[in-house]
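Hello Y.,

Per our agreement to keep a running log of every chain we model this quarter, I'm adding this entry. I've kept the format consistent with earlier entries: sequence first, then predicted structure.
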Amino acid sequence: MRAFIRMLAPHTYMDRQRRAGLLFVLPAVAYFSCVFLIPLGESVLGSFYRTQPGGTGQFVGLRLYQKVLTDPTFWQTVRNTVTLLFMSVPVTAVLALAVALGLHRLLSLRWRSVWTAMYFLPFSVSLVAAALVWQWIYDPVYGVLNHLLGRVGLPPLNWLQSLDLVLPSLALINVWARLGFDTLIFLAALQAIPGEYYEAASIDGASQWQIFGRVTLPLLNPQIVMVAILEIIFNFKVFDTVYATTQGGPAAASQTVIMLLYDTAFKFFRLGDASVIAVFVFVSLLALTLLQWRLFRRQVEY
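Predicted structure for the entry above:
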């Protein structure tokens, strides 16, 4: 026993460093396991059981997968989610990059900090509170947006009550809420690019657009990939803003996958079906993340 304890005890400096590093990350690993890995395992296990009255479960194999994945309502929510994602992610990334470039050009550090804080402020606001504010802005009778349209002679619109306008309206809320966070990521990356690269490009006679396309964008590639991944995950799992503004309406035109999961689990108490939806969301996000990381991440050296 003593020999086994001596074998586990660190002998060299590197052994002590590895042990110290393991002890430092152990709380984070334990938290991640309790909050994410264990519920994920329970969801995978629960997707094979149909919940019976009284809380008991009946093993049904892959029947719940067949039931959920052949349900037209489920695929309608997937289409709504993907549509919202395509409306939000590119606009958020492009606008955040443009704002970061503008802030990076500000010579005054004080004004740069002030404008950065203003752009970041919406990200610090609760999504439910932000959704309620935007619900008031979109109000067809008393809303600020329709009031502005009336001032320029345009008719009022039913932003959240229209089948065609509800998803673009929700996408605008997501862009507003996420713009500041992505701007900070791009701004930090821009400030980390050495100035010698720009000086060398200017000496070689490169124009501003050539410098942007040949120097800035390639060096921002890791941050662009990271922002794209984070925004896809956020928009695929969006729930707060949709639930607080439309509750999935009108006529389920804005119901997302996570809203369907919530309704299935906590309104209709079909926990097995909800577990199948949770597994679908996890597998989809994992596949999209790995695909993006594989296709768009590249090493750039100058």
